Amino acid sequence: FLVSGGLVQSCGHIIPESPVLALGSNFTALCILNESCLDFGNIYASQIIWKIKNRVVPKEQYREINRTVSSVTFNDTSSLATPLTCNILADGQIEQNIYGITVTVGLPPEKPKNLSCIVHQMSKLTYPMTCTWDPGRHTFLDTHFRLKNRWPQETFPDCIPKDVNNSCTTTDVQFFVNLEVWVEAANALGKAESDPLVFDPIEIVKPLSPHNLSVTSGILPTVLKLSWENRISAAVMKLKFNIRYRIFDDTNWMQVPPEDTASPRTSFSVQGLRPYTKYVFSIRCMKEDGVGYWSDWSEERTGVTTEDKPSKGPSIWRIIDACRTSAFWTVRLMWKALEPYEANGVILQYEVTVRAKSSLSSPPEKYNVNTTNLTVKLPNGTYEVTVTAHNKAGASPPSVLLIPAVNSKASVKNLKTLPKDGKLWVRWTAPNNYIIKYVIEWCLVSNSSDCIIEWQNEPGTVQGTYLKGDIKPFKCYLITVYPLYADGQGNGQSVKAYLQQDRPSKGPTIQTKKVGKAEAVLTWNHLTVDEQNGFIRSYTIFYKTIDGNET
C-alpha cells in the first residue's frame, strides 16, 4: 500500500474479482500493479508471489505478462482455496500483500428429476398441493429452486421452498382444469429445468379419511352395520372405500372385498362374522375411478355381534369308580367348556340326560347344571348320555356318549410315546373296525397326590397326537387311549411316559441281609416315583475292602 497525502492507496488489484468457478475447470487470475507504485516503490511484476490460503503457489504456474501484470493458472480448480492473494517482496526481502480475492468453487445445478405432486385435503374446502423432486447432486453453491406452474393461458406466481430444496407447497389449486408444473434450479454457474408435468389436480387428491364411524349390531348374529360421514363433497369427488376389520384381541386384519365397496356410500353391512365377538373396524377412501391416492385409515371403532346358539356340543367323557359293584356304578361325567367361537355367547347352563339303553321306553333322567361335571350313581348297564350347552339364543347340538356295561370292542395296538419339540406325543395302531373318535386320558403319577384325570378327544381318522395340557419334565404320566365306536368302546390301552428324564433325586438306602465269608446279600427299597425322575434301568453296586480298594 502507498501512503500519499494522508490517503492509503492500493498498489494493485486482481481480476476477476471474487469469481465463482466450476469445480474441476481451469482458471487464470491476473495481478495488475498500479504505475504509481512502480515509481514510488521500485516494484515489478517479476517480484509477485501468489498464495492460496497463505500457501505459496509453485512458480511454474506464474507468467509475467509485462512489468505490471503477473498471471497465475490453475488447471484444476479442485485445488483452489480462499483467499487467493497477490504478494510482493519489497526491497527484495520484505513480503507485503498487494490484494486478495475470495474464490468460490462449485457445480452448476443438475436437471431436477422425479417430480411428483399430491393434493392433500386439509378440510372441506382446503386443498394445498405439495410437489417434491430430486434436486440432484450437491452444488456447493447457493442454489435456488422454484416450482413454476401455469394454465394454458395464465402463469401463476412461483412457489419458493422454505428451508428445503426438494419440495414446495402451494396453498390454492383449482380442479377440473389442466395445470403444467415444473422445477427450475439456478445458481451462479447456470440454470436447469425439470421435465414438466401436466395434470388436473383432481387426479392427485389424497382425501381426508371418513369420520364419525359408528358400528351397530342387528338381529342377525353374523352382521354388523357401519355408518360414517365423508368429508369431501360428492360434487367435487365421488368415492370408493376399503373396509378392514379384525377380532379385538387379534392383530391380523381382514378386508371386505374391494368390489363390494367400489361405489359412493355412507354405510355398509359387514357379513360373515362370528356371533358374540368383538370386532375392530377402520375405513379409508379414494376417488371412485382409482385415480389419486387412498386416504389414511380412519379412527378405529369397535362393535360386538349378538349371540347365537352354540355351534357344537361339549366334548364329554366319564370316569367309572374302580370299586363298582355288580349292581351299581358311580360314574363321574365330565365335559369341556366350549371355545368362545363355539359357545357364541355366555353359556348359562348345561342339560345332561342319562337314558338306559335296556329300557328305551322309560323317560331319561335329566339334570341342569352350571358346572362342567356331574356324578351319578347308576345300576349296572348300558347308558346313552347327552349334554347340551345353553346360552341366551338357544341350545347346542347334543354331545352323545355311550357308557357300556363292558368294553367289548377292539382296542388300539402298539401304543407308544415320543417326546418331540417340547411336547409328549402318543402314537398307536388303529383297530380294523370303523372308529368314531379316540379319547386320550392322562394323569400325573405321584406318591404324594391322587391321579387326577385329564383327557382330550381326537378324530377317528388319526393315529397319533400330542397331549394338550401342562406336561412337565421329570414327571411320570399314565396315558390311556380308548377307541369309541358307534355302538360301544374298546378297552383302554395304557403306557407310562416322561416328557424329559433326569437322573434320580437320590440313591437307594442299602441294608445287609446276610454276610458270609465270601458273599453278602444286600437289599434296598425302590425309589418313589417322585424321586425317580425317569425310568430306572439298572442299579450299579460299588463296594470296597477295609483297606480302601474300591471295586
Automatic annotation (TrEMBL):
Gene Ontology biological-process annotations = interleukin-6-mediated signaling pathway
Domain Fibronectin type-III, first and last residues per copy: 209-308, 313-411
- Which UniProt keywords are present, listed alphabetically? Cell membrane, Disulfide bond, Glycoprotein, Immunoglobulin domain, Membrane, Phosphoprotein, Receptor, Repeat, Signal, Transmembrane, Transmembrane helix
Q: Which InterPro entries match?
A: FN3_dom, FN3_sf, Hematopoietin_rcpt_Gp130_CS, Ig-like_fold, IgC2-like_lig-bd, Type1_Cytokine_Rcpt_Type2
Secretion signal span: none
Q: Which Gene3D superfamilies match?
A: Immunoglobulins
What Pfam families does this protein's entry cite? fn3, Lep_receptor_Ig
GO cellular component terms, alphabetically, are: plasma membrane
Q: What is the topology of this protein in the membrane according to its UniProt annotation? A: Single-pass type I membrane protein
MF terms (GO), sorted A to Z? cytokine receptor activity
Q: Where in the cell is it found?
A: Cell membrane
Family from the record: Belongs to the type I cytokine receptor family. Type 2 subfamily.
Please give the name of this protein: Interleukin-6 receptor subunit beta
> What organism is listed for this UniProt entry?
Tricholaema leucomelas (pied barbet)
User: What lineage does UniProt assign to this protein's organism?
Assistant: Eukaryota, Metazoa, Chordata, Craniata, Vertebrata
- Gene name on record? Il6st
